[in-house]
Specification:
The structure is a homodimer. Chain A is α/β, with parallel strands linked by helices. Among the domains of chain A are: about 170 residues, Rossmann fold, CATH 3.40.50; about 100 residues, 2-Layer Sandwich (GMP Synthetase, Chain A, domain 3), CATH 3.30.300. Chain A is built from 15 helices and 26 strands. In chain A, a hairpin with a 2-residue loop joins strand 17 and strand 18. The longest helix of chain A is centred in the N-terminal third of the chain and has 17 residues. The termini of chain A are far apart. The interface between A and B is large, with 74 and 74 residues.
Chain lengths: ~525, ~525
């Protein structure tokens, strides 16, 4: 017997109608390349999204065609987030930090028919253009002028009318968007998000145990919109009616704190490196900024030392909340909040809880696997995290060779080594490829890094495996010392002694000026290995 | 092009797995008929739900079979909420306040194969039993004894093992539960909820703009579990991991306030009449109870005077939140919160905002129709509310004759007369059938009632239409005066004069000792008409 409920598809036009009719007056603020501020609202974004969809129809874009975006975070990118999918096409966000060759590979594999490019990124685009077969290039420009052969976003929209836009029938399982993984290992792989996955993700990400977004909030997504849907925040903000502030290309700590102060931001999100440098900016300029409006900052992409969580909380009354996800999980998989019985724990213990990646959001399920067995949820045993749920990828775009990333019973193998506690709280211990296998045991490079970064003289630390005749692998620590501070390898060893098992302590420390980073700001351990071991 | 996301169905077993693995330790407290307290947790409820599913399988219940429940709010009813649907059967909650004939009609139309009955409701059941053809009757009893020919819930579960329960494959569109409307007009009609509808409703109802439920919350669902899934609260609480307190049959104000005080309830929900009497209990016994833990009380079923909202807020620091829904909408359709720019409005204006029914929750869409035209969203124009969304009924169970309750383009006609403001805030002006059509204009009986109840001497007021030769209809007000107070019709007329249009003022006032109520606690205007007009 079937239920007798409406066959109402979970498609992005429903979210857009809501943004327009219920939250049309909510502000959307963008910082333009010239550092000036652009102000519009969700009503205008919705109308213009329909214009964009109509403009693409006129350009011959039809059902399932891919439309790339090479853009910073701004209102036009938000219009693309809605306008491309509601026309039945597929939004393909391009990571502007990739090399021209990588970008060309991705554009060609996805067969993007149209690409929307920021004027400020035309220099990036010029190197890609000769390598790809895109039919139309649309430029987001503040002036009338765009290079010959390209179309002006504003001119195209001016020729359209939201009232005459005819929306095609959308199926909830059809693709709404695509994003390529930014893994350092191997060729990046395409993930195709369905309308259904994004709608469900938006609902789950808006819950109190996820982004906990209110209509009265003001959200600053620092995480780029080219990086897994900016963690879903643009859609969640549009659904909840929160004000949105887009930083544009201005991601330096000073610009971010200016944006927070001026627009009274309450919620933000980004990778740890951003918040490490923002903390520095705040600490070095006491009294210059007002960040008192900020309730929460969501952290993802890599683990965060508990000490940073404590610093934000004690010095600026800002709560950092850890979340975990991947390109393959749309991305929110887990979020870390204290449980009802942990609010009275001592501060240090609370920080330890918070430094974990947290519990899965509703409808996401997790398990940890080692040697084909489920590892017990005891908070200690480590295994590779596997995940499933309605917004988790079941395969990669045109990559049957990557079928081994999925278990025989259909879970996604994440490549993260985790432990899970009895209440389902997940802690990332390491990446599979970064784990140090020493004498049959596993050493977590992440735990070692966090223990090292808890030293007052250490700015950053990255730990990699060094081949070892006796133990197979042993850890090597690359350490960046804070300016005007000094520390020796011996002092670091003494610092680690009470914090980790004795056999975890690296025998080798390398003091470096910086840790190389990937295009999304994570430690690039492949590059670090080259730098320290191959040299 | 389809998305490449997992085909993960939205079925209730996913919510149950979450409750068990992530929130297994969260308390589920029930007040038993003898007023003692029963304490268990979500882990046990989950295990026993699987036992119930297995027990039903043993009794021959298979895919799509209906299993009725004639139960108060308690942990076993929660087990039925999960156990029946995860076995592929359909939970059919029975309104224990209906007459034996009405219950028999509903049970027979739904063809319930098994019915689960509370021991304390066996007297109700005895009158129904001869009228229905149910195969098995299971009794929720605290003792080993059950009447001959009936099965004992606990004995059945003791013979089952959650580890050996084999869950059938569930489709998200299959029916999970059924509930009959309790309309006073015409035969009640069956609504069949799909797993998908309930799962989506649970996600949307958990949002900050809906029930805003946290893991640290303690929820007291006063709204009966036989009444539209207790507004979804049991599922939302299980998903969020909130503690649940079930009042059992003890719904008198004193018992409710005892439960709130003892269990430190933070969130509750029920119809206005409950909260009117709870307020009385609190006001008459200053200092006896501690309700300081309560953050929010959700109100639905009928409109609430702004004065009551103010009284709770000013005297007890408790926020009443208006929600609107129907059996046909699973039920949450709209919830009333202040917008970001209304928090600084004067208190009276804030109460007026709050007394509206609010904005639709995500994925629910509303419109108001008068004479087949959409009424403008100006906050004044009235029309019949129509609604659509993934948890809105598209038809009634075996009732093709009720097809006129749906518009030609597939919206549900709610029978509520509403106005909608420019930001989508909906206000119920009346029921279609209660509206007073005076001289071609509409008079809202609800507005008149609220204006009357704002008078300090008025406990309750209900307004009905009286046939009128000149105006077609004119309003009649039935008024219950507070004990130890007095008021005249002339004084009420003077009280109304500055509050409503002059031509709205009833020429006839009837002072009565009580307003008759329906089985779910709403004003029964059909009975009132009989009482006052036919007499």
């Amino acid at each position: 017997m079937d239920g007798l409920m409406m066959d109402f598809p979970l498609t992005l036009d429903a979210l857009l109608r809501r943004a327009e009719t219920i939250h049309g007056g909510r502000e959307v603020v963008s910082r333009l390349p010239d550092r000036s501020w652009h102000r519009t609202d969700l009503g205008s974004v919705a109308a213009r999204s329909k214009c964009l969809a109509q403009a693409l129809q006129k350009l011959g874009v039809t059902d399932g065609d891919r439309v790339g975006t090479l853009c910073w975070n701004h209102f036009r990118h938000l219009e693309a987030y809605f306008g491309i999918p509601i026309g039945g096409a597929v939004l393909h966000t391009l990571n502007l930090r990739l090399s021209p060759q990588e970008l060309a590979h991705i554009i060609n594999e996805a067969a993007d028919k149209v690409v929307i490019v920021d004027e400020s990124l035309l220099s990036v685009w010029e190197a890609v253009r000769p390598l790809v077969a895109v039919e139309h290039v649309i430029v987001c420009a503040e002036t009338d002028q765009v290079p010959p052969g390209m179309l002006n976003y504003e001119t195209l929209l001016a020729e359209c009318d939201p009232a005459t836009f005819v929306q095609p029938a959308l199926r909830e399982k059809q693709a709404a968007s695509m994003c390529y993984t930014s893994g350092t290992a191997g060729k990046s792989k395409g993930v195709a998000y369905s309308h259904r996955a994004i709608c469900l993700h938006t609902l789950a990400a808006g819950l109190t145990s996820s982004f906990e977004l209110y209509e009265r909030d003001c959200v600053l997504p620092v995480v780029p919109m080219f990086h897994v849907n900016a963690w879903g925040l643009p859609y969640v903000a549009a659904m909840c009616g929160a004000k949105i502030v887009f930083p544009g290309p201005h991601l330096d700590p000073q610009s971010l704190v200016e944006a927070i102060t001026q627009e009274q931001v309450t919620v933000s999100a980004g990778v740890p490196t951003v918040w490490i440098s923002v903390l520095k900016e705040l600490d070095q300029n006491p009294g210059r900024y007002d960040v008192s409006t900020v309730r929460k900052i969501f952290i993802g992409g890599s683990a965060l030392p508990g000490s940073l969580i404590e610093s934000y909380e004690s010095r600026h009354d800002i709560r950092l909340v850890h979340a975990w996800g991947m390109t393959e999980t749309t991305p929110i998989g887990t979020v870390s909040y204290l449980r009802h019985d942990q609010h009275d724990d001592p501060p240090t213990q609370q920080s330890e809880h918070r430094a974990r990646q947290g519990t899965p959001v509703p409808f996401v399920e997790i398990r940890a696997i080692r040697e084909e067995q489920q590892v017990p949820w005891d908070g200690r045993s480590m295994g590779e995290l596997e995940v499933r749920g309605p917004w988790v990828a079941e395969s990669y775009y045109q990559r049957p060779d990557a079928a081994d990333r999925f278990s025989p019973d259909g879970w996604l193998r994440t490549g993260d080594i985790v432990s899970i506690d009895p209440r389902g709280v997940m802690k990332i211990e390491d990446r599979v490829k970064d784990l140090i296998k020493s004498g049959g045991e596993w050493i977590s490079s992440v735990d070692l890094e966090n223990a090292l970064m808890a030293h007052e003289a250490v700015e950053e630390a990255a730990v990699i495996a060094v081949p070892d005749e006796k133990w197979v692998e042993r850890p090597l620590a690359a350490v960046v010392v804070k300016s005007n501070q000094a520390v020796t390898a011996e002092q670091l060893r003494e610092h680690l002694l009470p914090r980790v098992a004795k056999w975890w302590i690296p025998e080798r420390f390398e003091f470096v000026s910086a840790i190389p980073r990937t295009s999304v700001g994570k430690f690039n351990k492949v590059a670090l290995r080259h730098q320290l071991l191959d040299a």
